[in-house]
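[Target chain]
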Amino acid sequence: RHSPGLKLSWLGAGVGEPLPCIFLVMWPSDLPPCFHLVLSPAPKQGIAGRAVLLHGWNQSHKCWMRTAAMLRDRLHFEVLLLDFYSHGDSPSLVPSERHCSETLCRQVRALIERVGWQDEKLTLAGCSLGGSVALHYFTTWPHQVAKLLLIGTSGLPEASWVPSEIVGRAARVLLGRAPQVDISVKGECRASDWSLPDVICTSLLRRLSARVHFVRTTPDYRVPSNIVDRLCEAKIGITVVSAGLDVIHTPQHHVWSQIPGVRIIHYPWWDHIMLCCLISRLMLWQDPSIWHHSLPSKL
């Protein structure tokens, strides 16, 4: 049985419906089913907003679970969680070369359409790789993003000595460059009754290969080079959370501070791993202005 307010959802299983209930849904024909779930407040509380929480490389939706529950219970948000392809309970893509941040953005968009939020103003939150996916989503559908929360985010170029830049160069030499993916072009969709249990489990070797393919475009993950200019023009609420000891995706406050009204929360003695793995310790739900569209971010 599902706990109140928790809607488990697999492609092919209705949101909030018992899992054996299978019906047809529209889904991109070139993408397999993936794991996702929606947390909803109790009906009597109403829905104050909707948020999509995106995890980082080598993580899963579980890194956001406590934060998502708090957003539901305290701020009355409806929250979408998911596992990126080749992470958590979602399958890997075939061939492995398809794994890139743009494909993950397509995955996020397909899920947003699946749960019926495509016309909503959303709060997008992402850590590390998830931050780049959120930025890709913003650049493609800017009018559907009301707030951005970026934690230890990637998406900006780094100096040549930064480990993520070195790893990215090495991955490109070893595996070649990632194929170009046009996020804005909506691929063919079809009515599907697939469900996640129907997906054949991929081998550990294939999942490891997929993870390595993701880092071919690190550290900026091909986020447009004019992303800061676009964010300045959009005038949306933006919160950046950084760590002083982060040498994977460095804080780069001099870049983010160019955005009017941006809020920067800095933890000088944390590193990248701590920031991504201890999201619940940040207790970000305590500041509603980070999440609610109608509230300006506190400076």
